[in-house]
Amino acid sequence: MELRILKPAFAPSAANQENRQAIRNQIRIARRAIPAEAQKRVAQEAASRLMDIIYQRQAKHVALYLTSDGELDTQPLIETLWQAGINVYLPRLHPFSRGNLLFFKYHPTSHLIQNRLKIWEPKLNIIEMILPQELDVIITPLVAFDEQGNRMGMGGGYYDRCLNDWQLRGKPYPIGYAHDCQRVAALPTEHWDVPLPLIVTPSATHSA
């Protein structure tokens, strides 16, 4: 398999960087404040909503992420995907190309290790790897999103690089996944930011 690495130039303006960090701090505090029982309930609601979209798209290969820092819990979604016979994949930091991701199949017996960002990821196993353009859907983490479908992550640009030309290929179709409290009126953006066509929250599906 030929692995294509995309490297947009990242040089945020000082004003945007300050604004984005302020939004990150505010939203991360808000989502971490959601009580554990409410987290369980909204995770089930969001998983049900997103599964309807996955079925509509007839997706067979879906990438997502493991939850951390108060993010909307993906575990109910993962288990529902497994039960439906849909292949699930997790990202892993590229070992040789900083700022890029690789994707590996994830199943109940997968062995995970913690990376330098303290995030759990699959072991490097070429047999389990899939190229981004072979994925049908990629469910992206985010810190905040706005009414135009703009997504703000933690600032590393991993998903912006991965999705840089998804519209030209038609795959993987990106869907944001977030708590309702992570929606803001407008986000400061940069030229490399990749907007999302859909963002799913527990109470709604937002389309750009």
UniProtKB/TrEMBL annotation:
**Sequence positions that bind ATP:** R20, Q21, A22, I23, R24, R151, M152, G153, M154, G155, G156, G157, Y158, Y159
Q: Give the residues the record marks as binding substrate.
A: L66, E71
One of the entry's Gene Ontology molecular-function terms is: ATP binding
InterPro entries tied to this protein? FTHF_cligase (IPR002698), FTHF_cligase-like_sf (IPR024185), NagB/RpiA_transferase-like (IPR037171)
User: What reaction does this enzyme carry out catalytically?
Assistant: (6S)-5-formyl-5,6,7,8-tetrahydrofolate + ATP = (6R)-5,10-methenyltetrahydrofolate + ADP + phosphate
The answer to whether keyword Thylakoid applies is no
Q: Name one GO biological process term.
A: tetrahydrofolate interconversion
- Keywords noted in UniProt: ATP-binding, Ligase, Magnesium, Metal-binding, Nucleotide-binding
Superkingdom to which the source organism belongs? Bacteria
EC assignment: the record states: 6.3.3.2
User: What's this protein's family per the entry?
Assistant: Belongs to the 5-formyltetrahydrofolate cyclo-ligase family.
Return the NCBIfam families for the record: MTHFS_bact
User: What name does this protein carry?
Assistant: 5-formyltetrahydrofolate cyclo-ligase
Q: Which organism is it from?
A: Shewanella insulae
Taxonomy of the source species: Bacteria, Pseudomonadati, Pseudomonadota, Gammaproteobacteria, Alteromonadales
